[in-house]
Each structure stands twice: as structure tokens, then as C-alpha cells.
Give the backbone structure.
Amino acid sequence: MITLKAFILGILASFFFAFTFILNRSMEISGGSWLWSASLRFIFMVPFLFIIVSFRRNIMPLLKGMVKNPLPWVIWSFFGFVLFYAPITFAAAYGPGWLTAGTWQLTIIAGMLLSPLFYEWRQTADGLIKTRQSLALKPLAASSIIIIGVALMQGNNIHGLSWHLIVTSMLPVIVAAFSYPLGNRKMMEACNGEFDTYQRVLGMTLGSLPFWIIMAIIGWVKTGPPSSGQLTQTFIVAICSGVIATVLFFMATDMVRTEPHKLAAVEATQSGEVIFTLLGEIVLLSGNIPSLLSLTGLFLIIAGMIVNSFVSSQPNSTQKRKKSRTA
């Protein structure tokens, strides 16, 4: 039941995350600076998250925890938020939203490849022992179906794009694709269940705030103040993607943080972003109707998510060993 709930929350998060790619591209088309698109989102997030956490009476424990041990908050917020969002908004300045959203799906595999960097506690005959996580091979194979689907969806669109456009639109997103799961997982590890999802999102937003203020100052010097249209669209991104999507996704990953194969399946739900982004660009930005090849890719993405969910519901090798010893 927890896996299903986490899976559904992940899908909902991918829907709200899609606003990032659609509106960032819209702002760039209308002449807005990516520096403002990136920094304003997180600056706008602070008061909303502060109100939510205050309403839950959890502000003081969070602030005390951050003051007591500030370094992890600054470091992993930089990876999880700054190196995630700044490259994505930069890429939107050079390429269409579907290319950014499609490349972003590498984060599905990135999270799994990063697993050996993390530890987990396992019950043995000698008690609890701390061991490195292993690669979740079955979810990795299932996620490959999603990546193939994304490649097919982007196949028709990528023809005619210059190498310069591909590099400036894709390489920054590849950096973001690895930084986001790294920052998220490391912060979960550092918190160790001490803070809830809302506290963790607010803490990471506050931890990254100095970087966004510096970026906003650079944006002011280079391009002047943001337009009213960019302020409005960035505000929508802050609410939909920054608050709603981030909280939903962090809640989903928190539910399965101790089970690497289920965590991989939840991270794979973010492939829904490319579907929602494609549909959003068709409706809002007059994008092209998907071809038969793209529809085939769409089918594979959906199939990959279903397979990933099924694989994650099966007991892993450690659980099987526990059951056999109990029997």
C-alpha cells in the first residue's frame, strides 16, 4: 500500500513539475532572463513554506537543527536545488521544453547509479550492520524501457537541431539529472527522519537562498528587473513546481527511503514529466502533434512505469533471505 501511495504521489509530482519546463520555455521565448526564472522561483517559495511549517509548529526545531549543523544543509541544498534548477533554466534559454524534459529523464537512471554512494542498515544474525547500497538491477532494467520511450518521443523532434543547440540544451540538464537525486538522498540521509517533508523542503530552500540572491543580483545587473509577465509565470512555477511538486515528490521518496528498489521506482515516476510537458506545449505553446513514433515512445514510458512499479513491489534479495531464515 505504501508503495502504491508513493507511486501515485510521484505521478502527481511529475504533473506539477511539468510546469517548470513549459513556463520556463515560455518566459525565454518572451525575452525573460533565465537568471530571474531560476532565482525568483526559490525566493517566492520561502514565505509559502515558512507559513506551512509555522502552521505545523515545526519552525523552531528546524532552525535549531540548521544552526546546530549548517554544513549539510548548505552543501546538499546546493546540489539538490542550485545545481538542479539553475542548469534547467539555463537550458530552457537555448532549447525547447520537450528537449529539456526529455533529457531530464536521465535522472531516473542517475538515482540508481548513485546508490553505491549511500548506506543502509541491514538486520543480520550479528545484529544491525551498516552496508553500502547495491545497484538495483531489476529497476534499472525496467527504467531502460522508459529511457527508450523518451528517445523515441524525441527522435522526430531532434532532427534539424544544431549541435550547439543540443549541447547547450542537454549537457546542463545532465548535470541537473545527477545533482537532484544526489542532493535529495544525501539530505534524507543527513536528516535521518528527524524532520518531516515540509521542514526538509524549507530547510533546503533556506540553505540554497544565498546562491539565489547572488543570482538575482547578477540578473539585475545584466538585464535589469524582471517583467511583470516573468514575475507572474515564475510565481506559478514556484507554487506548482517549487512547493506542490517538490513536497509531493519528497513525501513519496521519504516513504521508501530505506528500500532502494522502491526508491528507484518512485524516482522513475518523474518520466511522466515528458508526457505532461509535451501535452502542455501542444495546448499552451502551439507545439506539434506527436507522430506515430512519438506515440510509441509514449506507450513505452507508461509501460516502463508500470513494470517499475511491479518490480518494486516484489521482495528484494535481502527480504527473501530474511523470510527463508524465519521459515
Notes: Residues 2-318 form one domain. Residues 163-191 form the longest helix (29 residues).
